Amino acid sequence: MRALPAPLIYIQGLFRPALLRPDVRVPSIKNVDWPGLRKAGYNAVVVDKDNCVTVPHSDALFAPYTNAWAKLRETFPGRVLMVSNSAGSSKDRGGIGAEALSMSLQVPVLAHRQPKPACAADIVAYFAGRLGPPKLTRDKVPETHTEVQEDAAEQELVDKWRWSAEEGPLIGKPLQGTLEERMVAAQYRVPASGSEGPATDAAMKIQSTAEIQSKGKTRKREEAKPETQDEPLRIVVVGDRQFTDVLLARRLEKKGVEASAILTTDLPYPNDVRLLRKLENYLAPGDTAQVDRLTSFVHLDPPEPPSLKPTGLERLNPIAQIRSAWAEWTQDTPKVELDPRSGTWKPKPLFVAAVRGLGVGLQVLSIYARRGGAWAWVHIRRGAKKGWESIKIKAGEMRTEYRARKEAAREAAHVEAATQTDAATPASSGPKVTTTKAALAGEEGGLQSAQ
Fold this sequence. Notes:
This protein is mostly helical. It folds into three domains: about 5-130 and about 230-295, HAD superfamily/HAD-like (Rossmann fold, 3-Layer(aba) Sandwich), CATH 3.40.50.1000; about 140-225, no CATH class; about 345-420. It has helices spanning about 5-15, 35-40, 65-75, 95-105, 120-125, 135-165, 180-190, 200-205, 210-225, 240-255, 275-285, 290-295, 320-330, 345-425, 430-450, and strands spanning about 25, 45, 80, 235-240, 260-265. A five-stranded parallel β-sheet has the order 1-5-4-2-3, with helices on one face. Helix 3 links the parallel strand 2 and strand 3. The radius of gyration is 53 Å and the shape is elongated. InterPro entries: PGP_Pase.
């Protein structure tokens, strides 16, 4: 069955975001316990290039990962494969980038026609041995250089011995074979005085240069044969992209291989395809169920201690400057022990201890002063509330009394005004009133008599 092309696999990841979830997230390859993974049964590692072990567009190993990379190669000898969508892909014309990367990182680089994650079949074929043993440039160059040196030395030896082997007398029994065979046999030949025994015949055994070289190559192949060839294939895929590296692990599982995806989060060049990384995290947040099993192989670095130097606007604050200088000056000062023979009874530790003790005392005083102030403030507010309520009651009583007094004064003024009006009435008005009254009385008498 023909493998799916990469665009279709990407679309499959969009419709099934669970395929994009890594098994575990780590800051970098420094935080992975590679010997622990090897003991757990993993026997092969597939590593991405850009932002995982190198900076983009560079073949040099990222300097902080040097020790971790050496540990990885030491733990999985001959079983580390570099798979990149730049070096070794169809973009790498002539494989020049793959050769340069292989020489720099000292691991084989997979040459694949389809980009990740569509090259899972090629990875399985490589670890199964169907692509042949890895041919590294770092191995070819020394071997070629050694062969040139051996050819030059052999030619020099032929020139020196040509006269003795062909034109001059050769001591001992004449040898058969080519010039090279006779030269090799002459080096191991020990002629005995008198007769030749079995030891001499064994020493005179002729071995051609071709046989020696073929035996050496066979021995090298046997030594280079990985110990994990007979084990079931269990691959760790390490990369920084979910759409390529994590999907590659899932494609390997489709091929019947047990694979685990490790996603690195600390990027040497974080600005690379930032939008795609945000999309990946949005589509597939979290990890798979294997995270509980693989977390034991992750070692997180301790957080860096906070900087003692002030930053931002604190640099303009003299108190912050004093605190920073004091913290830096007392950073490595030992604590004073009670025993004077401990060696800590020195001017600087004693001075630092005295200042710290004074600071602790002032801190305690400030704490209790703050508590006392809070207690006093509560009681002051409570007393002020009671006093304000009593003042309001007293003010109400005074207002009521004032209103009553004002009403009484108003009534008294009204009575007095009426009295003064009656007293000021003129005397001439009296007879008129009397006459009127008398007339009224006469009218009433006339009415009664008429009745």
